[in-house]
Amino acid sequence: MTDQLWAILSAVLVIFVAGGLALTSGVRRRRQPPTLPPEERSAQAIDTLTPGTDEVLVEAPEEEQAPAAPTLERPEPVAGRMTRLRARLARSGTLGRSLLSILSRGSLTEADWEEIEETLLLADIGIGPTTELMDRLRTQVRVLGTDDPQAVRDVLRAELLALVDPGMDRSLRVSPGVGDDGEPHPATVLVVGVNGTGKTTTVGKLARVLVAEDREVLLGAADTFRAAAADQLQTWGERVGVPVVRSDREGADPAAVAFDAVKAGREAGVDVVVVDTAGRLQNKTDLMNELGKIKRIMSRQAPVSEVLLVLDATTGQNGLRQAQVFADVVDVTGIVLTKLDGTAKGGIVVAVQRELGVPVKLIGLGEGPDDLAPFDAAEFVDAILEG
């Protein structure tokens, strides 16, 4: 009995094993990829099977693409900018239109002369320059013995040009120098002004002017009161490949940032370092004194070549008072007039130069990145007379 039981059990076991083998014979095994350490996995191909086949697909890892270098902008050449902007100035100004309207009346009466004088005063030329101009105009007309509008216009042009003073040195002092230690140093430009004049934007546009002249430039973001100012300057610099030295914290000492910028520029061998500063009201003594400190600290690395005062042309005589205070504190060497288009206040050019004995060196005539141009006296006078 026992032998028969074992025979039956053995037969069942054989049948079960055979059936199991039959069931598994039609199932295709999926090859498993080898297990690799994490650091090696990204460097190896991944083995997989296409469903329903025995083929192995090898998927190579995607190559990491290096980020593309930003395309740098090439600023517009400086030569000819004033000529390009001349038409814009002529269209937007009312000084020239007003003067020509009076002159076109033919024989000038006393009332016409008074209207010319009023027009010049409203254009912010100033009382002194206007009185001188009127006296010379009347004298010239008497000498010529004519009231011909074109003849008077020619005289007006000559006298206005004399007031604007084409003989003033308007060149930017941006050539590198050599210190007392015999080591080269960059030219340094300190940019100052009150709030809202477009100072930081002007610094960015000035960098483009210098880059267009093939100069190596570095910017210093010494307006540490507004993080947005440093960010804005950084954006301007990136567009033309100009590095920016800035503080990593808001409210840092602006003099320290200016010092670091000039030091970095000296070590990098750049041609020009331009330092932006926070806008400040001319009646805030502490802030004005801070400008003097910034200039002194900068001078420890290299002499300050230029101190450019940015003025809003629309402020008129108020801008003139601002200019005087800044000139007393930091010895302004040049004026940058912004927003000159769209205003009849072009006479501020004459007034500020007469008051400070400092030339207007650059003018802003639009919002475009290259709408900053070296000031040209003849082009300016012709533009306002064409208006």
Query: Which structural class do the helices and strands define?
Result: alpha/beta
What number is the mean pLDDT?
A: 79
Distance between the termini: 130 Å
Overall 3D shape: elongated
How many helices? The count is 14
- Helix content range of the residues, please? 40-55%
In terms of quaternary structure, what is this? single chain
Pfam families: SRP54, SRP54_N
Function: Involved in targeting and insertion of nascent membrane proteins into the cytoplasmic membrane. Acts as a receptor for the complex formed by the signal recognition particle (SRP) and the ribosome-nascent chain (RNC).
Catalytic activity: GTP + H2O = GDP + phosphate + H(+)
Enzyme class: hydrolase
SSE blueprint and pairings:
Elements: H1 2-24, H2 38-41, E1 46-49, E2 56-59, H3 81-92, H4 95-103, H5 110-122, H6 127-144, H7 149-164, E3 177-178, E4 184-185, E5 187-193, H8 199-212, E6 217-222, H9 227-240, E7 244-245, H10 254-268, E8 272-277, H11 285-299, E9 306-312, H12 317-330, E10 334-338, H13 348-356, E11 360-364, E12 372-374, H14 377-385
Parallel strand pairs: 5-8, 5-9, 6-7, 6-8, 9-10, 10-11
Antiparallel strand pairs: 1-2, 3-4, 11-12
Helix pairs in contact: 3-14, 4-5, 5-6, 6-7, 7-14, 8-9, 10-11, 12-13
